Amino acid sequence: MRAVAFDIFGGELDLRELPDPTPTPYGAVIRVEATGLCRSDWHGWQGHDPDITAFPHIPGHELAGVVVATGSLVRDWSEGARVTVPFICACGSCTACASGDQQVCERQTQPGFTHWGSFAEYVAIDHADVNLIAVPEDMDFTTAAGLGCRFATSFRAITEVGDVRPGEWVAVHGCGGVGLSAIMIATAAGARVVAVDISTDALHLAERAGATHFVNASAGDAAAQVRELTRGGAHVSLDALGSPATCAASVESLRRRGRHVQVGLLPGAATPIPMGRVIAHELSLLGSHGMAAHAYPRMLELIRAGILHPDQLVTRTIGLADAGKALAAIGSVPGVTMIVP
């Protein structure tokens, strides 16, 4: 198969021929019809993820496509099925999975991290009966691929973890794919959204996604600007980027008893948190890590009803030959980039 791979962390991302994957007894192989370009893939390429231990390695973890092979013990899926998957693929049998919390599975696998990913013509997914999600016939593969990481992660972060309620103020720090998804979902939930970024182009996309107030973080203290706009601070603030600056700004953007949700990855150095403010204002610090496959139907129904429009977040579509260069330059093009092998 054709695939984009690298041989050392930070090394060249080139298009090459690699062996086709085969399914495990409980797994499936999917022909990739679309896969998203995500900052998490950049972190993996840079060596920030301990799950990547062997080379060559293929990145890519949000995908949609068609089942082309299944293992002998797969019951619910067959060749030809249109599917997507959560980026966290669960085992289905550990204590967390038995509790319905597959997004924190104790034996989770992640395409593009624990094994070869979806910047390729084919990808293998284990425990297919637990992890595969049917893609509606009227949904484009590029739309479906964007659900697996950014959109589903934001959906759970806003609706479940952050528990956003109508009329609340929500601040979203970082208006990339995760942030734009969160803005759209929070707006649909009836919240008033403040978008925070350093890019004017990203803030324009945030307005299209539903944000009504905007903070250019390059113009000064972002948290202070959010507190002023919201007359005391946001009820919920989400760090969608993942940096010491955006994490601290998200916490400091909150009003008393507010809820901070950390979604963006924070690799490397320790991140200082203003714990004095956390204590004095009784703030809640929450982490959100993807969404289990069994939770997708509610989100899919909102998409099919026209309440959510993840397709509007896709700003560019490229081929595999351009995927390596695009990953190396991630963040330079606002919105969501889709790769179509």
Automatic annotation (TrEMBL):
Enumerate the UniProt keywords alphabetically. Answer: Metal-binding, Oxidoreductase, Zinc
Question: Metal-binding: is it a keyword of this entry?
Answer: yes
Q: Does the keyword Metal-binding apply?
A: yes
Classification via Pfam families: ADH_N (PF08240), ADH_zinc_N (PF00107)
Q: Which residues form the Enoyl reductase (ER) domain?
A: 10-340
- The EC number of this protein is 1.1.1.1
As for family, the record states:
Belongs to the zinc-containing alcohol dehydrogenase family.
Report the PANTHER family cross-referenced here.
ALCOHOL DEHYDROGENASE-RELATED, L-THREONINE 3-DEHYDROGENASE
Designated name of the protein: Alcohol dehydrogenase
